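User: Design a sequence. Structure:
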């Protein structure tokens, strides 16, 4: 089926290519700031962004994690290969969602890019996963999750 969908996209003049993968989604709650900082520091090598109360920081291999000690993370997305995790502040702490792309064919994945609020970053790159669902007796595809995978430098 994926070959037919890709042919339809090409015939319509679209360059996107659908791929078959599976993704694991594992949300967890982190209650302390210290535990969140350790989770962020342990996720290496990583690229991504962190939104603090006063600015958005870019995370790369040169990022100084000690600069976060007296600052509060509101949200963020970090990626390393097939793994990423997304951070959102919530009641009594943070929700961290671990995402990992795996071999499989139960979902369709498409690459997407979005304009960043920091022009020097170019675009934010994501993999968006779609899964079959039923809608009023018809089989349709619905988005499941988008996983941050990095930056597309030089474009913006």
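Assistant: Done.
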């Amino acid at each position: 089926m994926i070959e037919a969908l890709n042919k339809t996209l090409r015939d319509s003049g679209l360059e996107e290519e659908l791929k078959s993968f599976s993704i694991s989604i594992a949300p967890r709650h982190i209650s302390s700031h210290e535990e969140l900082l350790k989770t962020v520091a342990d996720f290496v090598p990583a690229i991504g962004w962190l939104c603090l109360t006063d600015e958005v920081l870019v995370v790369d291999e040169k990022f100084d994690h000690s600069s976060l000690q007296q600052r509060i993370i509101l949200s963020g997305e970090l990626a390393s290969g097939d793994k990423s995790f997304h951070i959102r502040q919530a009641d009594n702490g943070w929700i961290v969602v671990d995402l990992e792309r795996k071999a499989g064919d139960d979902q369709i994945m498409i690459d997407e890019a979005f304009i960043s609020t920091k022009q020097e970053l170019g675009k934010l790159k994501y993999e968006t996963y779609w899964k079959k669902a039923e809608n009023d007796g018809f089989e349709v595809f619905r988005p499941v999750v988008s996983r941050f995978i990095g930056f597309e430098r030089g474009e913006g």
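The chain has one domain: 2-152. DSSP finds two helices and eight strands in the chain.
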